[in-house]
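DM between two lab members

TW: hey, do you still have the YokE-like PH domain-containing protein entry open?
JB: yeah, one sec
JB: this one, 120 aa:
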Amino acid sequence: MIDNKRRSFKMAELFNESELSPAEKRGPGVVGIIEFAVGDQKEFTGEYIPTDMRFFMVADMNGQPYQRVISYDDIKSVEVEDSAVTVHFDMGPIRIRDIGNGTAQVFADFVDEQLGRRKK
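TW: and the structure you got?
JB:
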């Protein structure tokens, strides 16, 4: 099993806070195992980082940082399942599991709030 404290530290190294605009507020993120296929590999240590303006997916791909910035317009919904969260993007669902700390629901509530603001 991956050590969550070590994983959080590593993810902090991958995400650059200077990417955020001065008015942008970071929301509660979740760190875990992101399930998506790239070549033969199907799991990556990563983090979902929502802000009040956009959504970041950050992953460690074999020692190389990968970051994708996603508009809330491209997110359909978010679903919590125990210690996992599935974000339903326009491109399809991507699940992050082994979150721990009870942060999944806090994360989902924040993302749902951002999605609700865009539907008005």
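TW: got it. Residues 1-9 have pLDDT under 50 and may be disordered. Residues 52 and 114 are 6 Å apart (CA to CA).
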